[in-house]
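Exercise 7. Given the encoded structure of a 185-residue chain, write a plausible sequence.
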């Protein structure tokens, strides 16, 4: 199972890199990024479309016809439209979501932005989120885009993950550490 996951991640990364390089070469990086965000919205909000993309019983012609229709309606760039067709022909359309996410990561890195996950024990106001973002951006020296979630099981505090760096100030984590210390004695 883990080899399948690494295969899909590796494949997705390679296709995302190819699209990224091609978009840069054609001076369409911003356009393709916008196209990807638009397609991601459809993919994430329309379960029928997600099922259609992931359905291995769909023929290549059906996939290409739907992709072409969506591309035409949403006015996707020729580069992105052709790329989607290549995914269908090469039977990689099933990795669409992962490829789109990988592309957006590459684009963020190119712009000097980092992606991070912020999980707090309570709802934070827009002002609090802005302050946390500003302080972290200053200390890291790069703009950060937060994926924000609330997890009341943290009891108090928050967790931030930036790449492999994890900052965990939650009460749940502190209690877990105390429990481990007590068990060791």
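Solution.
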């Amino acid at each position: 199972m883990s080899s399948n996951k690494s295969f899909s991640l590796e494949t997705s990364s390679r296709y995302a890199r190819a699209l990224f390089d091609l978009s840069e070469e054609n001076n369409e990086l911003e356009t393709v990024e916008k196209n990807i965000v638009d397609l991601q919205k459809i993919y994430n909000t329309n379960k029928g479309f997600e099922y259609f993309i992931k359905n291995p019983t769909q023929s290549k012609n059906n996939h290409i016809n739907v992709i072409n229709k969506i591309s035409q309606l949403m006015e996707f760039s020729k580069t992105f439209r052709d790329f989607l067709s290549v995914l269908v022909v090469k039977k990689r359309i099933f990795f669409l979501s992962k490829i789109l996410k990988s592309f957006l990561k590459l684009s963020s890195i190119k712009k000097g932005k980092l992606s991070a996950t912020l999980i707090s024990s309570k709802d934070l106001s827009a002002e609090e989120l802005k302050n946390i973002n500003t302080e972290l951006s200053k200390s890291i020296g790069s703009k950060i885009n937060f994926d924000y979630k609330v997890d009341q099981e943290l009891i108090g505090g928050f967790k931030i993950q930036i790449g492999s760096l994890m900052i965990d100030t939650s009460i749940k984590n502190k209690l877990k550490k105390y429990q481990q210390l007590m068990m060791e004695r």
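Remark. The chain has two domains: 2-109, 114-184. Students should compare their own answers with the one above.
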